[in-house]
Design a protein that fits this description.
about 675 residues
């Protein structure tokens, strides 16, 4: 391949998606995920790509210049609670902070429960050291005590150690001494220090950050096997992984910060959604991704992906900068079940890819959302994945009927109930994501992607009164599409903790140090300085508030004018988010933290041309099928259109199904769909 070529991969719970960009063209493929060996699913998907471009798999892998992988490896460890056994070294007197969890409690199936305990209380040791709020050492660290605690923990079976001392974000010297002592005593023992990894305010979140990184550090086995198999078949290009901020990072960088790979796949799709929304003139959008195991929602505001610098990771608050994704257990493989009250429920448990939904014919014995969609007629069992995979409608009917027998419903009513419950959950999650930021859904467009996403997003948009639904041409593999174009991204944060106005010279010194560190990180990742793009961000809040807002700085050169503009921008963002009535007039503003974010140039530009509405063409359906539109009564005959056969400018009215090679788009009543020049679909509502 003379041209630059890249492969993007997204290993989901049910399917492994692959996208190849080569010579201005985009090729895509899907293959069932193989949990026993992720490499099997990846190789199968890549082989399908190779076939499309007339190459062998070996020829394709030897020719590509970049492979980027979105992986659920870290997410799976946290979901299944199968991480390393972690020991924690913390300041004496604060051994119970992790268990208390700031009093935070979760609603788990109606029960109030604390966050999951990643570190047993018996594996926490207090170290007699102390630094005050100004970073001044009050009690020096004794290395002998640290080593003694570590020996005790390792002898007891601990596999990794997290270190988090009080006020270490201001003075990390004690953590640095601890790290050095443990490296000398236990060279192969993973050690994660909160103040060194992420020197931010809030001790609990800094501690959980260190613990989560230590806990998930062993999650790379499956990814290592994938890389090894690709290397054996001729891959010489770098293998990158998508991080939770939507950028790419090297495997070496990921090993230093494993938690950065949580929500890896969804983050790539959200980043691609921002570009898609901008192309369609929709600066404000909601990214809606429905895969095999979950439904993920994220916001794009003024063309920028909404990120958060701290948030909840599987019920645990931590200081991780990441794309702000709201996830619920409502994917294509989510299982329908009856609870102890005799009520039909859906998810969060998923059938995954093995055995998968009953209609896959692999031994699945419980009804899933996919089974329900087959029973209702939304999915054509004979043309799934363009006819490459035949679905067993009779099996879907049997499992739905079997579940319904427990509560006096027939198969069609159970299928209707499963879809309705899943849809209600998606509407609530989407409405909550928008409402949490004080935004109006009527000003937002929905970007719909994932294998099953477009069977629900039109109904979600109708209930929220959203502007429109945009279905990109690569919707079914959109996270893999986002991965192939993800730029290398690095960031570093430093705690400031000063009231505005601050000494510009001191902030400028901190900023220069941050920028230089990020530049060095990018250079280590192979990004030359001339290809680096950096920016500064600040976290600010009114005095005595507990939450802060992230605001970009106007320049990399920090001076009095830059800080004055920063304060004005903070107040403007506060008013936009919460309203002028919530503004605390005259209150002091605190500069909490400073952050430098660096990205390399996008490896390859998106190959989709800018979408333009063409001359409207009324089109006739190529077929029809029975789809149940109401809970009661017979199924209705609904027009079916083949997406690949539709001409640019095609205009059609609902109800209708549009069958693509690897997804189906549902156009409900009172909605219309238009095919744009880039072959994206735009759904609007009467």
């Amino acid at each position: 391949m003379a041209e630059e070529a890249g492969i993007g991969l997204d290993i989901g719970g049910t399917f492994t998606d692959a996208v190849l960009q080569w010579g201005g063209a985009t090729y895509r493929a899907k293959s069932p995920t193989t949990p026993h060996d992720l490499g099997d699913g990846v190789m199968a998907a890549c082989a399908l790509l190779a076939e499309q471009v007339g190459r062998t798999l070996e020829q394709l892998l030897a020719s590509v210049t970049r492979v980027t992988l979105g992986t659920t490896a870290v997410t799976n460890v946290l979901t299944s609670m199968t991480g390393r056994r972690v020991g924690l070294l913390t300041t004496a007197g604060f051994e119970d902070e992790l268990g208390v969890a700031k009093g935070r409690r979760l609603n788990i199936d109606g029960w109030v429960a604390p966050p999951p305990p990643l570190v047993a209380r018996a594996d926490i040791r207090g170290v007699h050291e102390r630094v005050d709020r100004d970073g001044v050492v009050l009690t020096p660290l004794h290395v002998d005590e640290v080593v003694a605690h570590a020996r005790d923990l390792v002898a007891g079976g601990v596999e990794a150690i997290a270190v988090s001392y009080l006020w270490s974000q201001l003075n990390p010297e004690h953590e640095r001494l601890t790290e050095q002592a443990l490296a000398a005593e236990f060279p192969d023992l993973p050690v994660m220090c909160g103040g060194l990894l992420n020197p931010v305010m809030r001790g609990y979140e800094r501690t959980t950050f260190a613990v989560l990184n230590a806990y998930t550090g062993g999650a790379f086995t499956g990814v290592d096997r994938v890389e090894s198999r690709m290397r054996d078949l001729g891959l010489t290009a770098p293998l990158l992984v998508v991080n939770c901020a939507g950028g790419a990072m090297t495997m070496a960088a990921a090993r230093e910060l494993p938690l950065a790979l949580v929500h890896s796949g969804p983050a790539a799709g959200v980043a691609a959604s921002a570009g898609c929304a901008i192309e369609h003139g929709a600066a404000n959008a909601v990214a809606c991704d429905m895969g095999g195991t979950s439904f993920d929602v994220a916001l794009v505001t003024d063309g920028t992906v909404n990120r958060t610098v701290r948030g909840e990771i599987f019920g645990i608050m931590t200081a991780l900068a990441h794309v702000d994704v709201e996830s619920i257990g409502a994917g294509g493989g989510s299982v329908g079940w009856i609870d102890s009250r005799g009520v039909l429920r859906v998810g969060p448990r998923s059938a995954g890819s093995s055995p998968g939904p009953a209609c896959y014919g692999r031994g699945g014995s419980e009804p899933t959302i996919t089974d329900a969609l087959v029973v209702l007629g939304h999915i054509d069992a004979a043309s799934f994945l363009g006819g490459q995979m035949q679905l067993d409608r009779d099996a879907a009917m049997r499992v739905c009927a079997g579940l319904g027998a427990q509560i006096g419903l027939d198969a069609s009513e159970v299928a209707w109930g499963i879809r309705s419950i899943a849809l209600d959950s998606m509407v609530r999650a989407t409405r909550m994501a928008i409402a949490r930021r004080g935004l109006d859904p009527r000003t937002h467009s929905l970007v719909s992607y994932g294998g099953c996403g477009s069977l629900f997003t039109a109904d979600i948009a109708k209930q929220l009164h959203a502007r429109q639904v945009i279905v990109p041409p690569t919707a079914s593999v959109f996270s893999a599409y986002g991965a192939v174009a993800a730029p290398t991204r690095r960031e570093r944060t430093i705690s400031v903790g000063r009231m505005m106005p601050v000494d510009a010279a001191l902030v400028a010194e901190d900023a220069a140090e941050l920028v230089e560190s990020v530049r060095a990180d990018l250079e280590a990742d192979g990004i030359p300085r001339q290809a680096q793009h950096l920016r500064l961000e600040a976290d600010l809040r009114f005095r005595q508030q507990t939450s802060d807002l992230t605001v970009p700085l106007s320049s990399l050169t920090v001076d009095k004018e830059c800080l004055r503009v920063l304060a004005e921008d903070f107040e403007a963002e506060y008013v936009r988010r919460y309203g002028r009535g919530a503004l605390l007039l005259g209150a002091a503003v605190e500069l909490v933290a400073l952050r430098a974010v660096g990205e390399g140039e996008a490896p390859m530009a998106a190959t989709h041309s800018r979408p333009v509405a063409a001359a409207r063409l009324e089109v006739s359906a190529s077929d029809s099928r029975k789809v149940r539109l109401e809970r009661q009564g017979p199924a209705a005959s609904v027009p079916v259109h083949r997406l690949d056969d539709l001409p640019v400018g095609a205009h059609l009215a609902g109800p209708a199904c549009i069958d693509g090679r690897d997804t189906t788009i549902w156009v409900p009543s009172n909605a219309t769909a238009d095919l744009m020049t880039d072959r994206s679909l735009v759904l609007t509502f009467a």
